[in-house]
Amino acid sequence: MYRKLTFFSRFVPDILAGRKTITLRDEAESWPRIGETLDVHTFEDDRWFCRICVEDVHPIELAALDDTHARQENMTLAELKDVLAGIYPGRDAFWLIRFKLCSGDDSQP
Ligand SMILES: CC(=O)Nc1ccn([C@H]2C[C@H](O)[C@@H](CO)O2)c(=O)n1
C-alpha cells in the first residue's frame, strides 16, 4: 500500500510525459520521503494515474526559485510563481519534492 499524493488534473499530461519532475508544496504536504513510492491521483476526482518515486525533498524559499526549477515544472519562472500564488496565496516558503515516474510493476495500480 503506497501513500497518495494528488495533483491538479491539468498537470497530468506533463507528469506522464516526464516533463514535470518537481512539485512545490506547503508543510502539510512535506511528508513524502526520499526513496518512497507514491500513488498519484488527480485532486479533482481522485483518479489514479501513475506512481512516482521520490528522489529528493527539501525546503525552499520562494525567492530562491530560478529558471531550473521552472523548467522542472515545465513552466517559465513567471508562470510558476503565478501558479504558486494561486494555490498558496501569500506563502513564501515551500517544500520541493523531486520525483521520477516509476517504471515496471511500480507503474501499475
Ligand atoms: C491540494 C494541492 O495543493 N495540490 C497541488 C499543489 C500543487 N500542485 C502543482 C502545481 C505546480 O505545478 C506545482 C507547484 O505547487 O505543484 C498540484 O498539482 N496540486
Automatic annotation (TrEMBL):
GO molecular function: hydrolase activity, acting on carbon-nitrogen (but not peptide) bonds, in linear amidines
GO cellular component terms, semicolon-separated: cytosol
Reaction equation(s) it catalyzes: N(4)-acetylcytosine + H2O = cytosine + acetate + H(+); N(4)-acetylcytidine + H2O = cytidine + acetate + H(+); N(4)-acetyl-2'-deoxycytidine + H2O = 2'-deoxycytidine + acetate + H(+)
Keywords, alphabetical: Hydrolase
Residue ranges of the TM segments: none
Record-linked InterPro entries: AC4CH, ASCH_domain, PUA-like_sf
Keyword presence, DNA-binding: no
Active-site feature positions: K20 (proton acceptor), T23 (nucleophile), E73 (proton donor)
HAMAP family: ac4C_amidohydr
Family classification: Belongs to the N(4)-acetylcytidine amidohydrolase family.
Function comment: Catalyzes the hydrolysis of N(4)-acetylcytidine (ac4C).
Protein name: N(4)-acetylcytidine amidohydrolase
